[in-house]
Design a protein that fits this description.
It is elongated, with a radius of gyration of 53 Å. A hairpin with a 4-residue loop joins strand 1 and strand 2. The strands form two sheets. The protein has a six-stranded antiparallel sheet with strand order 3-2-1-6-5-4, with helices on both faces. The longest helix is centred in the first third of the chain and has 51 residues. The chain has 16 helices and eleven strands. By secondary structure, it is of the alpha+beta class.
């Protein structure tokens, strides 16, 4: 039982209304918010009960004549009917009419008429309920309007993001479909000019001389383009945007017109310029400019973020194009180096052999030995055929041909050729078995062995050379050793091409992930050792170690 009710029960009956009013203020909040209403039917019901009771006791009242008793009963019946009519009227006013009003209000609310309200009577128990229901309607209508405003806001934001994604997609598509840097910038400017409704657009890159260089433009006249080729970065808005790495805007072009010495557009035209940095991995490469009519003014953060994102995409594309160009240049240099190596190891070796055979032929002519003369001529003819075959192979495949049966038959053919061209004894010891190596690895190994045997024939003055091919687990080893005079030390200021064969052999060993060692002492011969790992088959799994975080 609430404390205020307990206090009321303990209150003496002679206390006045003042004490009751003070005690009502002490009621709990929920009791004060919903007071118990005073019933409008209490007095009429009490009066009706009294009349009914009097009618019930009327026959037993002594001293009343029959006529008086009848008149009194009729009067009591009329009074009872009047009370019943008053009760019906009050019931209609206090109950039926409010219920109908609530029903009409609920029907309008269900029909999404959030402005529906219940008429508030001047008095009666329904007054407070109608006020509360109208207050609830106000709250609900306010929440609905706020929700609609939030929905409109989010819809506008989603539409803006969708437009931004469409612009980024168009820009990325134009960048990815370009062939080179010039084509990339041209496509980019055309796409960007259309999607942002720009009058003109340019791209400027920051050079090593701290100057802004115009590399692409669209929508500017030729005179402006010629005057804007190079600008000092510290004197123009573009340079400040590049140095600060932030987007900059110019409400008018008077400063730019002054720097260029000629107006960009007509004097009466209202055009503003936007400078957006081109950034890639924290480094600013330059800026791109947009010249936009003022009715298309960009003044919200979403559009600014979109322009910055476009700048990052273009910066990445420019850097990628530069790296691709650099990679292409390096690939050309590498291809030229490989062709030079192949020429050195194929045609150069064959021509050196021909030069040696011509000298032998000259000595044979002086000796007058006709059979030996014909033998030397046949060797020269065979060497010319081999040189022609190697040249055709270089033209067709940019590399010397290798025996289709694999590396071991090619090595055996090379050893046989060495026997035919020199008087040095050569021994081949092959312990590789059926080595299944990639073609590129086979070519590198063959060229190393070919260069080593050519050096033995030309410089070693050896009597015997041994070629050992062995496999130890996952490593392949090749050993070429002779009993000649050893390798001479490099001379300072030697002619071009001298000792280049050794460096080429080292480079070929690195290409296959191997190592090559040269051991030589004057008068003690030379030993060349090549070792390289067995290549992993294509498609083999690679295990990547994963470091576990400490708990």
């Amino acid at each position: 039982m609430p404390d205020w009710l307990k206090r009321n029960r303990r209150r003496p009956p002679n206390e006045g209304r003042q004490a009751v009013a003070v005690d009502a203020a002490d009621r709990p909040a929920h009791d004060r918010a919903f007071p118990i209403p005073h019933s409008p039917y209490r007095i009429p019901l009490a009066a009706l009960a009294v009349i009914i009771a009097f009618l019930g006791t009327l026959p037993f009242v002594p001293g009343l004549a029959g006529t008086a008793r009848g008149l009194l009963a009729a009067a009591l019946v009329v009074a009872a009917l009047g009370l019943l009519w008053e009760l019906a009227r009050r019931l209609r006013r206090e109950l039926l009419d409010p219920l109908c009003a609530i029903r009409r209000w609920s029907a309008r609310m269900l029909d999404a008429d959030l402005g529906a309200r219940i008429p508030v009577p001047d008095q009666g128990s329904f007054k407070r309920l109608a006020s509360d229901l109208n207050h609830l309607s106000d709250r609900f209508q306010g929440l609905s309007l706020d929700m609609e405003a939030q929905v409109r806001k989010q819809t506008a934001h989603i539409q803006q993001q969708t437009r931004s994604l469409e612009v980024l997609y168009d820009v990325a598509a134009s960048i990815n479909s370009s062939r080179d840097l010039d084509d990339l910038l041209t496509r980019f400017l055309h796409t960007l000019k259309e999607v942002v409704h720009a009058r003109a657009a340019t791209v400027r890159l920051l050079g090593p001389d701290n100057q802004m260089h115009l590399v692409a433009s669209l929508g500017l006249n030729d005179e402006v383009v010629e005057r804007e080729q190079t600008l000092p970065s510290r004197q123009c808005l573009c340079g400040r945007a590049a140095q600060e790495g932030t987007i900059r805007m110019h409400a008018d072009l008077r400063t730019c017109d002054k720097l260029a010495g000629t107006p960009f557009f007509g004097e009466q035209e209202q055009v503003e310029m936007i400078a957006v940095p081109l950034a890639y991995r924290g480094r600013t490469l330059g800026v791109y400019n947009l010249f936009i009519d003022k009715q298309h003014h960009i003044d919200n953060d979403d559009d600014r973020d979109l322009l910055v994102s476009i700048g990052r995409h273009l910066g990445m594309a420019i850097e990628k194009a530069r790296l691709d160009e650099e990679a292409n240049r390096l690939s050309i240099i590498e291809e030229r180096t490989r062709i030079a190596h192949e020429l050195h190891d194929s045609l150069a070796q064959t021509l050196a052999s021909l030069r040696f055979q011509v000298r032998v032929l000259d000595e044979t002519l002086h000796q007058g030995d006709e059979s030996a003369l014909w033998a030397e001529l046949e060797r020269i003819e065979n060497s010319l055929d081999e040189a022609y075959t190697e040249l055709r192979g270089l033209i067709d495949h940019f590399r010397a041909p290798i025996d289709r049966r694999g590396l071991i038959p090619a090595i055996e053919k090379l050893v046989q050729r060495f026997r035919n061209e020199s008087s040095i004894q050569i021994f081949l010891q092959q312990e590789w078995g059926q080595a299944d190596l990639p073609e590129d690895v086979e070519i590198q190994v063959l060229r190393i062995v070919q260069e080593a045997l050519a050096n033995v024939r030309k410089h070693s003055q050896a009597h015997t050379v041994r070629l050992l091919m062995r496999r130890d687990g996952e490593r392949y080893r090749v050993l070429i050793e002779d009993d000649g005079v050893g390798m001479p030390r490099k001379r300072a200021g030697g002619g071009p091409g001298e000792h280049v064969g050794l460096s080429i052999m080292e480079e070929r060993a690195r290409r296959i992930g191997g190592r090559i060692r040269f051991e030589s002492e004057p008068g003690e011969g030379t030993r060349i050792q090549l070792s390289f790992p067995a290549p992993k088959p294509a498609g083999s799994e690679i295990t990547i170690p994963i470091r576990q975080a400490n708990p």
